[in-house]
Each structure stands twice: as structure tokens, then as C-alpha cells.
Fold this protein.
Amino acid sequence: MLLKKIFLSSLISLTIISNQVWAEDSVFLNKDDKAPYSGYLLPKEKVLELRNNTLERDTLKLQNDSLNRSVTRQDGIIAKKDQQLTLYGDQMDKMAQVAYSAQSLNNWEKVGYVALGIIITGLAIKGAHDLYK
Amino acid sequence: MEYLIGLLVLALGGLLWNKKRADNAEALNQNLDTKNKVIDINKLINKDQTQLEAERAKREMLEAELKAKEGKDVTQEDLLKFLDKPDDNK
């Protein structure tokens, strides 16, 4: 019985409170109008200012989010450019190695050609010598 | 004997020539590999640049929208709606 009473009184209180909240929506009042409930009265200019400030705040918030995303993207671009620089650096090292190896190979080629010349000349002399024998 | 020496010289020349060719081929492959990697990274950078442009356009659009909202004549209904639910007024 007691529980039922508590439940009913809670239900009635809640209904009254929610009606009151619903009733206290903003209303427009002309001068000398009777206020339907206690609250704050603002001149139209102040409400406009408040509205514009809120709009500006919301826009700035969205712009800030966008800027943060842009910063992340920029960081990504910088990281990728660094990666490209590393690749170029490695490639230059490899090319320098290849150039050095080609140069040393050229030296060996020169030695080879000189040796070939000596051998061919020797063979020719030997051949001529055999012919005159 | 002379033929053997000739063959030896030929074989040495052939080995040197083959090594040079293999080195050149390897260097060319490495070059191509690096070039492809750089091209792939460039594509990703271009994609990021496009996204950056999109974000910039979005910010400009938000700025223009704000100016339009601030500039338009606000009705009494707009203000009451704002006072009741300021977050719906974006």
C-alpha cells in the first residue's frame, strides 16, 4: 500500500515537472505583456549576438577539426617525402658502387688487352720464326 | 700450347664481359625498382594533396555558410528555435 502511494506520488511529480519543462520554452513577449513564468528576458540584439556567436563557435570547431585532419595529412606527406629521399640516397650509393666497379673493370680490361697484345705479338713472332726455320 | 693460351685469353675476356653485363643488368633493375617505388609514393602524396585541397575547400565553404547565416534576416521563429535548441541551429 505504501509502495503504491510512493509510486503514484512519484508519477504525479514527474508529470508535473515534465509539463513545466515543456511549458518553459522560449516565448516572444511584447512590451507590457505578462510573463507566463519566471525567467530571463533578453533584448533581440543580445539574442542575435548570442546566436551569431554560437554559429561562429560551431563553425570554428568544424574548421579546427578540418585543420587537424590537414595537419595529419601534411605530416603524412612529409614522411613520404622523407621516404623518397631515403630511396634516392640509397640509389645514389648503389650507382656510385656500380660506377666504381665499372671503372675498376675498365682497368682490368686494359690489362687484359695489353696481355692479349703481348701474347698475340709473341705468337706472331714465334709463327714467323717457325716459317723461316 | 698456343691454342691453349688463346682459349684461356678468350675465356677470361668472356668472363669479364659476362660480369659487366650482369652488373649492368642488376644496376638497371635496381634503378627501375627505385623508380617504381618513387612513382608509387608520388601517387600517395598526390592523393594526400587532393585530400588537403578538399579540406581547404570545406573550410572555405564553412566560412561562406557562416557569413550567409549571419547576413540573412533572422525571423522571430529562428531566434526562438535557437534559444530552445541552440545545437540544432548549425
